[in-house]
């Protein structure tokens, strides 16, 4: 692809995302769930035919993927890179709409999915704690690795660290959190951590949104295993009082 083709490609994708109904459709799929065109039409507040036209355009630009099961047709984000790009755009969007964050429900700010890993206040606190304790080490601005003690921590949660290192995606990386404007843990390790805490019922997933709810068991276990004082949903005073360097990952 030459420079001119690249520029056209970027402008086409940007235009597709910029349309308000398409933005709603894409953001609704950031929880990793697949949805029908009827469901997405209701979310975007457009007619079924209009939603179909939007989905066709998003599919053409490889922003969404179509899944056919018998008579049913479902749509999901094409891959995690689309979700992470949207997450980064949300951070930029707050610069032009300062009141946006204040309208965000506390439970969504506290813990939510960012495609296949955890985001929100809880995720940022866990990320910071792993850095502080020396479990997570910076290789460079976009790559993390685990220390020996970090490997023991994750293996103690039942996560096969060596298997994750062999998959064809980044093992661990910072992903900019739009509500905190600071990184949470992304990559294969972040995805495995989310799967584990849901499986252990430390967090429960809201099927109608990206929100994650912390259970009583989860609060106890996360506090004990990570040595972390977990705030209640809606209390962002402790985390917002800290200043950190932020690196953005869109991979």
TrEMBL record:
The record's listing under CDD domains reads: HTH_ARSR (cd00090)
* Tree of life domain: Bacteria
The residue ranges of the HTH arsR-type domain are: 2-97
Q: What InterPro entries is this protein classified in?
A: ArsR-like_HTH (IPR011991), HTH_ArsR_DNA-bd_dom (IPR001845), HTH_Metal-responsive_Reg (IPR052543)
* Pfam families assigned: HTH_5 (PF01022)
| NCBIfam families to which the protein is assigned, alphabetical | HTH_metalloreg
* PANTHER family in UniProt: TRANSCRIPTIONAL REGULATOR-RELATED, TRANSCRIPTIONAL REGULATORY PROTEIN
| Protein's recorded name | Metalloregulator ArsR/SmtB family transcription factor
Provide the species name. Pseudomonas azerbaijanoccidentalis
């Amino acid at each position: 692809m030459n420079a001119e083709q690249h520029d056209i490609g970027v402008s086409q994708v940007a235009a597709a995302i910029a349309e308000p109904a398409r933005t709603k459709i894409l953001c609704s799929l950031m929880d990793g769930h697949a949805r029908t065109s009827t469901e997405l039409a209701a979310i975007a507040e457009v007619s079924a035919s209009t939603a179909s036209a939007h989905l066709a355009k998003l599919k053409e630009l490889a922003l969404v993927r179509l899944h056919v099961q018998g008579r049913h047709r479902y749509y999901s984000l094409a891959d995690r890179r689309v979700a992470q790009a949207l997450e980064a755009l949300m951070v930029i969007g707050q610069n032009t709409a300062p009141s946006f964050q204040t309208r965000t429900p506390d439970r969504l700010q506290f813990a939510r999915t960012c495609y296949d890993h955890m985001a929100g206040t809880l995720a940022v606190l866990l990320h910071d704690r792993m850095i502080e304790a020396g479990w997570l080490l910076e290789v460079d601005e976009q790559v993390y690795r685990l220390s020996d003690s970090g490997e023991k921590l994750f293996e103690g949660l039942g996560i096969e660290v060596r298997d994750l290192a062999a998959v064809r995606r980044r093992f661990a990386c910072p992903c900019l959190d739009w509500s905190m404007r600071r990184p949470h843990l992304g990559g294969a390790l972040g995805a495995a951590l989310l799967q584990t805490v849901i499986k252990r019922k430390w967090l429960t997933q809201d099927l109608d949104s990206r929100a994650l709810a912390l259970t009583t068991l989860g609060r106890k276990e996360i506090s004990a295993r990570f040595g972390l004082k977990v705030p209640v949903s809606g209390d962002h005073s402790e985390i917002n009082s800290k200043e950190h360097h932020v690196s953005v990952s869109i991979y």
